[in-house]
Structures are given as structure tokens and as C-alpha cells.
């Protein structure tokens, strides 16, 4: 009877340690992806030359224009949130590795903060995705013209950043699910 | 010793039943708020008359223009996600009331689905918020002009819908936190 009890305890301990390893690996992935997303959009810049007709009587002139992430509030929000998520993950990774899931309160607090990161990251992806979509297709109803035909490289790089952040957010979603299952 | 054990069990049971009542109340609030958000934006429509100069040689003419939620992808996404969240909450509310938290697997599944709702709702709020902000302020870098000076009522109603949905999302966030604490 006692043997069986000990075996069960060992199985639970093994399951817990496997979950902890998975948690640490996923956390590291989330860190890397949100860092990459913030950097990819943060360094995003494209300068291009367009022909502008100032007056119908004179020929059009060349004009150099630059697209930067800082020119659009949604992209600024995206970079800030990914930077926050990345910084938080570094701290939470150290915490979870140091406590090894022994402190239940710390573990619950980390899961709640992971949840906050899910909310923030998804809102940032939604914001930049909506603006990016208008950049690609434009919107004739409000006469917002597409800009990705001019800033193709910029738009492509922004899409890559959003993709990276999306996978990072899925990693956070997984971390919260681990947190829920950990308490089972 | 046995008395003390029974008292502890009763305290845990009381705590669990209080948490279940809070869960049901919050779930009902989330249902009402996401339903209201979907309806408030879904019925949003404003028709206004603007002066348009077609040709410099003739005087400007009146033109009637209409703003609807369906004209903007971010608003369509917002209405769909809020409708999904509201429908899901109705089902999950029935499930949680029927099982009374007795079935652990159902309870965990509901918490994971609540988490998915958090992600979806925050992405929808982010998307419509980003578009709404450009509607209010415009963006000179991409020459997207503000439209809320013309469609003031439409923009105001969209902001109300976003506010309702945001409080609804916070209710979902709370539901996931309850789900995490329930397992403690």
C-alpha cells in the first residue's frame, strides 16, 4: 500500500518536473519571439522616391519620403508591448527557474501575469494588424489609400514582426494553459 | 481532530461555492457586455451631407454619405468576435451552472476557452481601437484624414461599443483568474 502511494507520488513529481521543463522552454521561446518582433519592427525604415505633381503647369518632381514605425501609433504600441513582454519573460524565467515551482503563490502570480501578457500582446497584434491591412488594401469609404504599393519592404517587414509576435503570443497562451493544468 | 478536519472541509466547500457564485455573476456580466458591444456597433450607422467640389468652374454640390460598421474590416471583426464571445458565454454559463464545478475536466476546458475569448476580444478591441484612433486624429504620414469630424455620432457610438467590450474582456480576464485560483 505504502509502495503504491510512493509510486503515485513519484509519477506526480515526474509529471510536474516535465511540465516545468516545458514551461521553461516555452517561456524562452516567448522571450526570443517577442524580442525579435520588437527589434524587427523597431528597426523598420524605408526611404523611397515618388513623383509628385505640385502644379499642373510644371512637370512632376521627385520627392523622397520615409516610412518609420514611429509614425503610426499602432506600431509604437506594438513595439512597446513586445518589449514589455520580453522584459517580463526574462524576469519570470529567472523566477520560475529559481523557485522550481515550489512556491505556489509565485507560480500563481506568474500565471496571472502571463495572462496579462496574452491580453496585451493580442491587443497589440490586433492594432497593428488592422492598420497593416488598411496599408495593404486601403479603404475607399474613408478614402484612406493603400501605402504598401510604395513602402513594400516596410510592409513586408512589419508583417514578419506581426507573425513573430503572434507565435510568441501563442506561447504565452500555452504558458497560461500550463499554469491551469499545473494546479490539477 | 476529526471535528477540525470537518471544519476545514466545510470552509473549503464554502470558499468554493462563493467562487462559483462569483464566477456565474461575472460570466453573466461578460455575456451582457459583449452582447451590448456587438449590438451597439452592429446597429451603428450615420448618414450626413457634405459639400463636394467636383469642378472648380461650378459651385460645390451636396452629397449624402453613410458610415456603417460593415465598411471597415476591423469593425466587422469586432462585431463577429463579440457575438462569438457572447454565444460561447451563454453555453458556458449553462454548463457551469449545470455541473456546479463538480466535473474538473469541464471546469478546466471552460477556463481554457475563457482564455481563448480573452485573446480574441483583446485583439478585436486593439484592431477597432487602432482604426478608431486614426478616424479621430488622422495620420499625416500616410495621408489618412480624420473622419470623426464628419461622422461624429458614428465615432462616438463605436467608442461606446469598444468601452463595453473592454469591460467585458476584463470580466473574461477575471474568469480565467478564478479558474486558476479554483485549482489552488
From TrEMBL, chains A, B:
Location (main, coarse): membrane
Subcellular localization: Cell membrane
GO cellular component: plasma membrane
Superkingdom assignment: Eukaryota
Key words of the record: Cell membrane, Membrane, Transmembrane, Transmembrane helix
A Pfam family per the record: CASP_dom
Domain Casparian strip membrane protein residue range list: 17-170
Transmembrane segments: 69-91, 112-138, 158-181
Topological type in the membrane: Multi-pass membrane protein
NCBIfam families in the record: A_tha_TIGR01569
Assembly notes: Homodimer and heterodimers.
Similarity annotation: Belongs to the Casparian strip membrane proteins (CASP) family.
Full protein name: CASP-like protein
